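U., I forgot to send this yesterday:
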Amino acid sequence: MAENNKNYNHIPKEKFAFVNAGERLTDQKFEDKPIGYFKDAWIRFRKSKASVVATVIIVLIIMYAFLFPLCVTTHDHTFMVNLYAKKPARIAALAEYGIFDGGVERDFSEKGLIKNVAIGIGAEDWAGEGISLEQGMESEYQPMNKIGDAKTIIGPGKKESKNYTCEIDTYLEVGFFYRSIPQSELAKIQAWEEETGKKVLYPLIEDNKWNMDAQDANYWYKSSKGTPVVLDSDGMATTVEFGEGMVLEDNYKRDANGDPIYYEYTGGGTLETAQLKVRVLYYNYYQYLYGFTPDYIMGTDTQGYDLALRIAGGIKLSLMVAVFVCVINFVLGAMYGAVEGYYGGTVDIVLERISDILANVPFIVVATLFQIHLSAKLGPIPCLLFAYVVTGWIGTASRVRTQFYRFKTQEYVMAARTLGARDRRIIWKHIFPNSLGTIITSAALAIPSTMLSESNLSFLGIVKLGTAETTSLGTLLSDASTIWTNYPHLMIYPAIVISLLMICFNLFGNGLRDAFNPALRGVEE
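Result:
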């Protein structure tokens, strides 16, 4: 072997030559520009399709919460009409196509069916001339969208009755209402009728034996115990049955000339203040009062507020509370956990015992006590924030502490300490960035956790947020909890929003965890 090496040492330099000397070996250009920490994290985050989709959904929900109220120009989130409470979605422009028509399916007895059909008939027969069922069904104010075939039902005592499964427009179902207005408003209503061509004032109803309920303005036709009747020339009543060619006989108040009476004096001293009793078709009266048709793309809540605006307000409130809480807890938890994990020893023991004491205080107890004793002075939202900040940072502090114990003995930390770096620099420049992925992930996951917790508190009634100005998704769910089987939209829409936020924020947090994990830096998947 030594002999061979000796021979190689005596090979003349002239025997060596460069291969491809002066020639370009490849045209490929190598990227030597360094990739920043956050750019590298963004590249990894984009590779998670689920996280990207979740982020898009979160952005859309946030845009809905903040921009949708600006797009609704007819009313705001404090607008409330209790006669239209618990109504399903309705858009007048699409109602004629059977889409968002405010309709629900319901079973009616023959009396109930005639009463609702009579709303459309009465809306057209405002002069008391008498029109048929077919004419009334063509009315734009006819609440019955669809009438099913009659089914015979055997009741107690083997008494037979008819039952109809129908689809009814719940907004037109309100029908007629009595109102007391000043005489000055009467002229305004009449002027609006002439301008728009829509009828608001309808004849008053006679309070006699043919009036089923003097307080119900929808019983404009003669009836006996709820069954419609017509009178012959001798004043004898004949029962009216629902069916083709049905004509109802009005029970309107009339003057000496036989003309219907549309208002009557009920009190007041002057021409302006005199109170008049009138009977109005509420659907048109609503338009007279507010200047727009009752359009609610998600319907109305239990009090009559626009459900879409209330949900937007609930999302906004929950997001603002969650983000504020997470920022405060992130700062407090990061500082507390960094000091614990870096210094260890006695400092860690003392601080850990403090956090152990606070961690064993039930959050719901803290929140309840704050609401009982401070909400009257500070308001429910500040008290809720205080309750979260009292113990909310403990989880973040624990994670930061664990990460500091993991990294503080690494070689790069020992090298920085050997070179004279101060503790503050080692903590925030060397150890903390390596813990950032876990910390950011925990902070992102704390947002849905806080939102869910806030919704639970408002659902249970511990935090009272159901006012005209503010509301919560949990409050909306609480209001719907006992009636959602009859009004499913009250539960479905808030539940969908909460579910989407929970799922998407968790997927978003998982994407952040992988993106900020330094162990994956530069790794191609």
